[in-house]
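Person: I keep going back and forth on a fold encoding question. Show me how you would write down a chain together with its backbone fold. Please set it down just below, with no commentary around it:
Helper:
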Amino acid sequence: MATIDIADGGVRVRFSTWERLAVWRDEVVVPPAAIKAVEHVDAPLRRTRGGRAGALISGVLKVGYWGLGTGTRQLVSARRGVPGLRIEVDREVAGLPFDEILVSVPNAAQLAAALAPSNV
């Protein structure tokens, strides 16, 4: 399962060994200036849309890139029964090839509160 750390107002998402195969990277670092919005999501599996490149076990797991063909690319690591954190990213500021990060983490509500615009 991916993990999220907050440092200096920014976010670091680290992927497990097998998740790295689907997302093609070890970690993603989003600087505070690139965070446009943060949201706690109760059912992150339902928040993906569009085409995908990655792993899918229907109703259980989604890991990889979603949103192909929609104009909004998502980096996803979501599991059934685990809440998620959705981070809207400014691509140009972050220098990343996606617009959203959607990650299942048990402490998503606390992370969303810590990353709220008034706290960043």
Observations:
- The radius of gyration is 13 Å.
- Strands lie at 3-7, 10-14, 27-30, 35-41, 51-57, 61-68, 74-79, 84-89, 100-104.
